Structures are given as structure tokens and as C-alpha cells.
Amino acid sequence: MLLCVPRILIPSSAMVTGEMIVTSNGEAPCNQPVLVSAQPWKSFENLRCIHATFQHLNASGWYWGNISASQAGDALAGTAEGTFLVRDSSHTHYFFTLSVKTNRGPTNVRIEYSGNRFRLDYISSTCPRLLSFPTVSELVQHYVGTSRRKEKAKQDEDATEALKDNTVLLKLRQPLYKPKTFPTLQHLVRLTINRHTNCPEQLPLPHLLLLYLQDYPFKI
């Protein structure tokens, strides 16, 4: 679970913990310099990272490609809180955006790419640097798991803090699959296996099936 604070509502002295500052009705123009990794550009490593990310997203079923914030909002409008999708970012400095249905409606969070890693975007110096991941699928899986754990332990406390600080609770619960790209039965079985074991490579399965599991080692 993340706490998302609207850009124009947060005072400069506000304290935030595990929160993201995002827009509530689409992606506003970026008003901060783009972070550039201090590491030298390594084209092969970047190519491998980006290729793996697109490969996993295309297999996931919840990557919607080149749609606008408005279209993402329409798709999420009738869904339950915590439903999410990943789409191409409309901002030229970002590859992807995470669109989520919150208790106040659809919210968009840009996904920053730097140093062969992906992380959720943030704009406040008071916000600690967020975790980064090799692929977008790993990033999303982390926050889905975090949301589920925190919901069990701190649901009432987080709701109280959100009301007090005028923040938006950003929970990732379930993906919204894109029409006509709903996962195949094989992929759904793969997800089920991944959810019940941390070592699928040790299962007594034919080699080709093991390779199929390794192509998408995620639970969402």
C-alpha cells in the first residue's frame, strides 16, 4: 500500500512515509529535472533490461500499451479500489505509467527508469528514495504484496492517516486485463504455480514446461 499525496495540496513541511505525490486526474506536466544515473550508459545492459520488461509486460495481460490517462480512467471507472494497469507514459521522459483505481478515483503514477532499474516517480525531497527493480513486473509485484500485507496489519490506521493528511491511499490489489489480450489458460496455470512455490525450477516437469515457467516468474 502506498500513500499518494496530490501535488497541489501537500504543504512544503508535510511529513510523508512511504507515499507518492501523484496527480488524481491524469499526468500533469513534469516540473522537476529528470534524474540521470551517475553510472555510464551501457547500451547492452539497457537493451536487455528494456527487452525483458516489454517481454514480461506483453505476457502479463495487464499492459495496455499506448492509451491516454483519460482512456485508462474510463477503463478503471467501474472497477474496485486497487485495480490497476500499466500503460505507456504520455511524458517523453518516461516509458510507463501505473494507473490505479483509488478511493478517490483513478490515479496515475509515472514509472521512472534510471541505471537499468525501474522505480515509481516522486517529486518531494521529504520522500525517501523508493525501491528500484530490474523490470516493471517485479516493481508491480512488490507493491501488490506490500499492499496485501499492510491491509492485514494497518488498514484502519492507514485510513485514519489518509483522512488527516488529505492523502490518497494507493493500493494495488488486482490487475485489469486488457480486452482481447486476456491471459491464456497456460498462463493462468503458470501464475498459480508461481503463487504456490518459490522454486518452480525444482518441480518434476518436462524441460520445456520449466522453460515456460521461467519466462514469466511472477505471481500477477
UniProtKB/TrEMBL annotation:
<feature type="domain" description="SH2">
    <location>
        <begin position="62"/>
        <end position="176"/>
    </location>
</feature>
<keyword id="KW-0833">Ubl conjugation pathway</keyword>
<comment type="pathway">
    <text>Protein modification; protein ubiquitination.</text>
</comment>
<dbReference type="InterPro" id="IPR036860">
    <property type="entry name" value="SH2_dom_sf"/>
</dbReference>
<dbReference type="GO" id="GO:0035556">
    <property type="term" value="P:intracellular signal transduction"/>
</dbReference>
<dbReference type="Pfam" id="PF07525">
    <property type="entry name" value="SOCS_box"/>
</dbReference>
<dbReference type="GO" id="GO:0009968">
    <property type="term" value="P:negative regulation of signal transduction"/>
</dbReference>
<keyword id="KW-0727">SH2 domain</keyword>
<dbReference type="GO" id="GO:0046935">
    <property type="term" value="F:1-phosphatidylinositol-3-kinase regulator activity"/>
</dbReference>
<keyword id="KW-0341">Growth regulation</keyword>
<dbReference type="GO" id="GO:0046854">
    <property type="term" value="P:phosphatidylinositol phosphate biosynthetic process"/>
</dbReference>
<dbReference type="InterPro" id="IPR036036">
    <property type="entry name" value="SOCS_box-like_dom_sf"/>
</dbReference>
<feature type="domain" description="SOCS box">
    <location>
        <begin position="171"/>
        <end position="219"/>
    </location>
</feature>
<dbReference type="Pfam" id="PF00017">
    <property type="entry name" value="SH2"/>
</dbReference>
<dbReference type="InterPro" id="IPR001496">
    <property type="entry name" value="SOCS_box"/>
</dbReference>
<protein>
    <recommendedName>
        <fullName>Cytokine-inducible SH2-containing protein</fullName>
    </recommendedName>
</protein>
<dbReference type="InterPro" id="IPR000980">
    <property type="entry name" value="SH2"/>
</dbReference>
<dbReference type="GO" id="GO:0005942">
    <property type="term" value="C:phosphatidylinositol 3-kinase complex"/>
</dbReference>
<keyword id="KW-0734">Signal transduction inhibitor</keyword>
